[in-house]
Here is the input.
Amino acid sequence: MFIMGNFFEAIAVVLDYALSIFMWIIIARAVLSWVNPDPYNAIVRFITNATEPILYQIRKRIPFDLGGLDISPVIAILIVIFLQTFVVGSLHRLAYTLS
Here is the structure.
């Protein structure tokens, strides 16, 4: 059973790193929204393409407008933190019980 425990531990670690990287990409997207970046820059396009599907879904479901203030990155970061706490924590706990 320790093999399954190690497997779930590895999934938890990889998922934690992936969520952390995604959170930093969302933060970079928010910072880029404060300036006028070149939309043809490869890094700017990557950041936009990586975050826009999630941020668009959040914007679509927010029922109110805050006068042009986009709070979808904040909500996305809160979702990432929830996933890191709940899902990754649960996987760590499951791995601990299986080992």
